[in-house]
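Async update (no meeting this week)

Hi team, since we skipped the sync, here's where things stand on the single-chain job. The sequence we agreed to prioritize is pasted below, unchanged from the tracker. I ran it this morning and attached the output directly underneath so nobody has to dig for it. Comments welcome in thread, and please keep replies under the output.
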Amino acid sequence: MTASAHSSAFAPLQNDTFIRACLRQATDHTPVWLMRQAGRYLPEYRATRAKAGSFMGLATNTDFATEVTLQPLERFPLDAAILFSDILTVPDAMGLGLSFALGEGPKFAHPVRDEAAVAQLAVPDMDKLRYVFDAVTSIRKALNGRVPLIGFSGSPWTLACYMVEGAGSDDYRLVKTMLYSRPDLMHKMLQINADAVALYLNAQIEAGAQAVMIFDSWGGVLADGAFQQFSLAYTARVLAQVKKEHLGVQIPRLVFTKGGGLWLEEMGHLDCEVLGLDWTVNLARARALVGDRKALQGNIDPNVLFAPPAQIETEVARVLDSFGTPHTGPGTGPAHIFNLGHGINQHTPPEHVAALVQAVHRHSRQQRAGTR
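Output:
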């Protein structure tokens, strides 16, 4: 298929606020989307998941994945959609046997805990992840240009945490034991993960993702020094291989490290367009540290959404004001994308999400009006 035939397969973008903010261009309001915006807090999501029979049944079915990705956009005027999938699809494709029990986190049947297991690891055949790329194309078509579609992956280090622990962890004892006793094995695993993640993100871009995000969910559990060596270096290895543009259109790349505020200055040197911040970081300080090299994304505490709408509005204004007025006018300058400091809690009342989105749009428009 020629490039023009491929690009015309998708409708032109009607709301490009998110993309413009990623590229540090002026926008008339601060764009907002939410990590895990398609999820268990929505009754319609729970109904679709029940129909699918399981989480992976949902994620591997193109129609279901498309349906749940669009559900939050039917309810709230969000500025971006994010692919409905899981960060652990890549290690699953490596043959580690991923499963999800209802109400429990992910589990791997074959965790990677010794030299023999690491020796068997390889970058998986992307055909095993065809269901993800089919979902990307299907969602992009269904969006019909309404808002951009974000693709994503877990970071090499975050994937390694699950691969070694075999599930989520409270103390990361097994993965850190390998890191400190056999750093050679950990580096080998991380190299394979990084190359797999880069291929995976590029395939999502080719399928129609208009921005891609790397979730370094567990980077913050590392010691200083270990973070730079075992997380940051491999996130950089991914970014070095991910497409910066596709069919002549720039593809913003976002990096989010939960607990990464300590290393913001170093993360400011990553080859990406956007840094995501958790709720522990002051946005004004982040803006001063990172300068104008990156757009910033975040970072309200997801638990603010349990407060009454009036308090939610106050907290939204506080976050927007802590960043300050974004760049207006031609060229590029400081830019902010509003988001939570981590994923939305499953018990969140949907009407509180509506109050948050409305408050972001209203207050950020007033902010800009004050500068004219």
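Quick observations from my side:
The chain has one domain: 3-369.
The first strand starts at residue 81 and ends at 82.
Reply here if anything looks off.
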